[in-house]
Write a structure and sequence with these properties.
- The structure is a single chain.
- The chain has about 325 residues and is α/β, with parallel strands linked by helices.
- The chain has two domains: about 1-125 and about 230-335, Rossmann fold (3-Layer(aba) Sandwich); about 135-230, no CATH class.
- The chain contains ten helices and 14 strands.
- It has helices at about 35-50, 55-65, 115-120, 140-145, 155-165, 175-185, 215-225, 250-265, 275-285, 320-335; strands spanning about 5-10, 15-20, 25-30, 85-90, 95-100, 110, 125-130, 190-195, 195-200, 205-210, 235-240, 265-270, 290-300, 300-310.
- A six-stranded mixed beta sheet has the order 7-11-12-3-13-14, with helices on both faces. Strands 2-1-4-5-6 form a five-stranded antiparallel beta sheet.
- The radius of gyration is 20 Å and the shape is globular.
């Protein structure tokens, strides 16, 4: 059951924001500080709140980690005591959280949570942070519980998702297709022993994740999430800067994989700064693929958004603007030589 809309009012960098989403792949681009990851964290918190043991407002503060876990710290900074509102909608339900600049902890006024839980009870959601974390997974949950380290909850959640082992049986034909492609890149399979992650290239050898290149670890994580059934039809995947530390030669394969997951019914939200990744999504998609690009850009009254089905047709495009400046600098330098 897809997430189809978000509304933010006086929330972090946003004065007011309304976005309708694709059921397939949603790509956020923009300069640093324009709220790309913030949007994904809000939607992810709502997806997690489909579980009866997860509160929407509490999840918001645990993935954003404001000081003293006060949701009021997520209000847009301006004078006065004003209302902030977060609304996320699916095609069957709506959940919202309202708070103000003096709200204590996560004591927001949440509405629609009961229906949201009922309608989306089977929803599975996964957030892959920009920083690879599985190589440091050993005992991380206990360290966070004791306040010895400070990670937002997306890092704890992805470790939990990656440790799931629900697919000991034979892989489906479709799943095996994905796994074989990724395994050719990583040259091995992921295995978990005593809460430690390893890459296993052969029947006996195993290599600690910390000794594997970070780009390979990120691809191995995707392999593990497909292998254990986390990324199946009806799931929602959030991936913050998937291109970070990836060998550029592997980006086309990653794009193919994401497009195939979308075709299989996985809704995907991505934040990226990368020209090659964005262009490959545009070039490799077919007419039936449901892909939308969203350009976030600063204005006098906060951040605004422009959307288009094609990356090249965005009027405000920070990635293309930077790429054009590079080409101009190269041209000018060559003329000077």
């Amino acid at each position: 059951m897809a997430i189809n809309k978000i509304n933010l009012e006086n929330f972090t960098v946003f004065e007011k924001l309304d976005i309708s989403f694709s059921n397939g792949i949603n790509v956020f681009i923009g300069e640093n500080g324009t709220g790309k990851t913030h949007i994904m964290k809000v939607i992810y918190s709502a997806c997690q709140a489909a579980r009866i043991d997860v509160s929407f407002s509490e999840k918001l503060v645990k993935v954003f980690k404001p000081d003293n876990l006060r949701i009021s710290r997520l209000a847009r900074r301006k004078p006065g005591n004003f209302r902030s509102m977060v609304v996320v909608e699916s095609d069957a339900a709506r959940i919202s959280a309202e708070f103000h600049s003096k709200t204590n902890k996560w004591d927001a006024e949440v509405t629609g949570e009961a229906k949201w839980e009922k309608q989306l009870s089977s929803l599975t959601s996964t957030f892959i942070p920009a920083k690879e974390i599985l190589s440091n997974a050993w005992n991380l949950e206990a360290a966070v519980d004791k306040n010895n380290v400070d990670f937002d909850e997306t890092y704890i959640d992805i470790i939990t998702s990656a440790k799931v082992d629900i697919s000991a049986g034979k892989d489906s034909k479709e799943r095996k297709k994905y796994l074989d492609i990724l395994q050719n890149i990583t040259s091995g399979k992921v295995t978990v022993e005593n809460e430690r992650f390893y890459l296993k290239p052969g029947s006996h050898a195993k290599i600690e994740f910390s000794l594997v290149a970070e780009g390979i670890r990120k691809i191995a994580l995707l392999w593990q999430l497909i292998k254990n059934g986390t990324l199946e039809k009806g799931a929602v995947l959030f991936w913050d800067e998937p291109e970070a530390n990836i060998n550029p030669a592997h980006i086309p394969v990653m794009v193919d994989m994401l497009l195939e997951l979308q075709r299989s019914g996985v809704q995907i939200f991505i934040s990226t700064h990368d020209y090659v990744f964005s262009k490959y999504l545009e070039v490799k998609r077919n007419e039936k693929d449901d892909v939308i690009f969203y350009s976030l850009y600063p204005k006098e009254n906060g951040v605004e958004v422009e959307s288009n089905r094609y990356f090249k047709d965005l009027r405000v495009n920070a990635i293309v603007e930077t790429f054009d400046r590079l080409l101009e600098d190269v041209f000018n330098k060559n003329l000077g030589d």
